[in-house]
Amino acid sequence: MQVYEAPIRDMRFVLDELHEDDGFGNVEGFEDFDGDMTAAILEEANKLCRDVLLPLNWPGDQQGCRIENGVVRTPDGFPEAYRQFCEGGWASLSVDPKWGGQGAPHALAKMVEEMSCSTNLSFGLYPGLTGGAMVSLEAYGSEDQKNFYLPRMANGEWSGTMCLTESHCGTDLGLLRTKAEPQEDGSYLVTGNKIFISAGDHDLTDNIVHLVLARLPDAPAGVKGISMFLVPKYLPKDDGSLGDRNAAQATAIEHKMGLKASATCQMSFDGAKGWLVGKPNKGLEAMFAMMNTERVAVGIQGLGVGEIAYQSAVYYAKDRLQGRSLSGVKNPDGPADPIIVHPDVRRMLMTMRAYNEGCRAVTAWVSRALDAEHASPEPEVRERAKDFVALMTPVVKALFTDLGHESAQLAIQVHGGHGYIQETGIEQFARDARIAQIYEGANGIQALDLVGRKLPDRMGRNLRSFFHPVSQYLEDNAGDENIGKMIGSLQQSFGALQLSTGHIAQKGLKDPEEAGAAAYDYLHLLGFVAMGYCFAKAAQIAHLKLAEGTDDEAFYKAKIATAQFFFDRLLPPATARFMAITSGKSSMMAMPEDAF
Amino acid sequence: MQVYEAPIRDMRFVLDELHEDDGFGNVEGFEDFDGDMTAAILEEANKLCRDVLLPLNWPGDQQGCRIENGVVRTPDGFPEAYRQFCEGGWASLSVDPKWGGQGAPHALAKMVEEMSCSTNLSFGLYPGLTGGAMVSLEAYGSEDQKNFYLPRMANGEWSGTMCLTESHCGTDLGLLRTKAEPQEDGSYLVTGNKIFISAGDHDLTDNIVHLVLARLPDAPAGVKGISMFLVPKYLPKDDGSLGDRNAAQATAIEHKMGLKASATCQMSFDGAKGWLVGKPNKGLEAMFAMMNTERVAVGIQGLGVGEIAYQSAVYYAKDRLQGRSLSGVKNPDGPADPIIVHPDVRRMLMTMRAYNEGCRAVTAWVSRALDAEHASPEPEVRERAKDFVALMTPVVKALFTDLGHESAQLAIQVHGGHGYIQETGIEQFARDARIAQIYEGANGIQALDLVGRKLPDRMGRNLRSFFHPVSQYLEDNAGDENIGKMIGSLQQSFGALQLSTGHIAQKGLKDPEEAGAAAYDYLHLLGFVAMGYCFAKAAQIAHLKLAEGTDDEAFYKAKIATAQFFFDRLLPPATARFMAITSGKSSMMAMPEDAF
After folding, report:
1. How far is CA B577 from CA A568, B354, B401, in A?
2. Ranges for the Acyl-CoA oxidase/dehydrogenase middle domain (chains A, B) (predicted)?
3. Measured between beta carbons, which residues in chain A are less than 8 angstroms from residue B172?
């Protein structure tokens, strides 16, 4: 059974307690979002997600989307839920009030995002894509475009898409063929076919704003000849009312492994009218503004699914009676003990729990930086925050989605045969989560982004925004009486990360394939060190709270237990990736192609 | 695209070259199965699997099974394919000629099994279950039962099932409720409901022989009161022709994540006529004879899916053009290079390849022992073989299925978005493979079987059948000029395994939860040491062959490259499980139940 209650206590912990000393400060402009307000928003979001989105999750998977006379229909209940979602202001929680948004900090909005990803990943994609498109428009659109489109997207009345992929090119956008012909009125006619377009068509909004990558007639070949166009489904009149249907049509819905309630469309643009966004041939840059936001969002999808997978597995493990505890009967009145008594079931539950808490802690850290990057009054802080976000974006995207999928698989395993049956609703988590490791740049591409771009950038400056606080922390707390052993273990992993970084810097400079061969393991190692740092800090705070007395003992004790599990069980194998990283590319590249 | 060609060269390597010195000898009675005969059988099996079973694999997943007026229909083409399968004698390859089988060695039959698991896992379950039921009947049935049923099952005319699970009990069979009432004619009336019954009903055979676990009226509670009954779908007359329909009915087909062409049934036994197999209240023992065979078979399912996932990913990686090689353009005439040039794609392909070759090598080792256990002329060898099979059965089941599923997931990742689309046929591998980690005892149960039963059994004697040859090999080859580094690395992992074994033996004796907490990581560590041992031997053989000259250079060079990748990239993280194992149970069991 899919069960969910937002982990508000932990969300508040990572928002309010864990990162106070991260140097990103308290950002101006968020004065309205104090502790009470944050708590109220999280409570309200939980209600909506638990009571409205979750009940549609499994039925949506079973029903899927359908295309009827060229119109895409979402599953029963989705349009109504979307209306509630927008009326509650959830579509624009972190959007600038200038465009009608609520102006909440990203750090808070990401927690709400986690909830919708937990309870209905397919649903979340519709407003999620709109949010991404707004980021791109805000950064690169003209004043007229922004004033006209952003308010209508912020309130959820219109939605957005990103139309990049064509059947022959996904990762390698340089190959794309869609064309845009300039017209005398300053508009363009866009022609081409796109695939894998999330929310490409649906029945939730009156209009859809497609951001389409295409080539101008005189464009240079490759990635330097790509421009971005705004192509609405309906051509709006000046007053915002809808005019003619544009020649932008969903021709089919993809049949996917999961995420079936999200309409992934094949789109045909057949001389569709559009307008240039940003400069000619600079479309990739504009699209990347959106992609980076989306990449963090996709990481949170992994966390979201991981959380509901954990909660559902816990529910089952407490409910399902099989066998007896190895340390003596625990449920003498029942025919057997609940399976949560078994160490191996604990191993799975604790693994999921540690992944979720670790990812949530890192999310809060990164999204605090996201806020500081945009709104800190201090230029030095803004710079450092920007470096940190740049570094961590691929880590959040790839690591969180790998771990979220792993958690979903563990939830199936906890359920045994019942996890493999559709009616239980558990296998859906794994099928849904799986796409997050692929879209917005497959995880291998994220790893390449990390080692190929983010590390060497400005002589490693991005990395320093992460290494400095960690090494400082290790130095300051080496002898901590409560968490000394954790610090020692973290020190070891951090050392492995430093050596790995040196290996990549040195070997990769001469031979980029050496960096490529190390990339994936390196991303995981870095991510685990980041989680380990957060867990050490969390355990330290918990020890202090318990020492000074708190009415929330259970929470802080559980935090220490989870941290201890992470250091005992999860960090060592991640640290051993050091061996794989430094083994170099030779064994990976040795085999001639035709020997495969 | 699902592509497949049986890896016959590697199969012949593990059958003929790799394990010559394993001490299990050349078993008598298999003289007909010399090298030429083996090659011919593998070639024929490849043709059937590639040309008949594979084309039905994806359509079978899409169509699934259906229940029409109480009768289960398999997907189009399955009945005809089953007929071909049986006519070719494949249903009884390793069955005793006494019952009409071909009498081939298990070692050979397991390779053929791998092929059918690769090309159509759902299909393979129908004859697979029959094979398991025959093992149980052969060991525990009366002479009359054997003479009557086994020949009809060996030729595939009738099929078999194992009916264990009820909705409230899977792992904990002590809870089962199905009842058997003795009748005056010596038969029993069986009444109860079973779920998750593979091949519970279908249209491939005239009759189905259900082996049903149930309780006699005076049976003691728990596992000591379970008996096994033979309950045919149609009550056969003395001449084998079919009489009345028995009250054993499929009431529904489960809706599963995958394996959709395999009819997994809910079964209702409503006073169905049956006969006791073996002794009263000893049904679990009889069922376990079948379960152990099935567990090895399920491990091979993991390997089979891993192999086709690998081949399909290689096909795509050579075909798909995206981006350019980091070491210079490789496909100057094309718009981009094939993605197999990218190190991270290589990482995925090599991982799958190493898993498959490692598992196949261990399969050959274990199934040679299976043959020796049953047919070696030397009692000492039979004993040692039995110990080794007992030890390795849970390892083969759990490790191979974990790795097979991981390979299927990697194949999706290599395919990017196209891997997530159903039409490509790749995501099916992951959905199909997933069940193998669960059924026939979830992998966590296998790990408990390993540390709780197989290790302590007779003061660790099972383990010695594995530790002795490995430590002897390490001692003999420490200074090997070709594979010295591999030996060093294996030595380290083996040391970690020895220390882990000591930890479990010592701590687990006082506190079984300590053994339970270590079990899963220990199983993986042991399995990786077994694969490492096989890879070291394989690389050594390959070096010798290359030195003395061979017309198969490419094969032996590739074997060395794969072994090197295994030691560089895969063994170190597995070895690091030592840290998790020895961290003990405390962090796993610390959290009070209500803190989850």
Report:
1. 10, 19, 18
2. 162-271
3. 321-323, 336
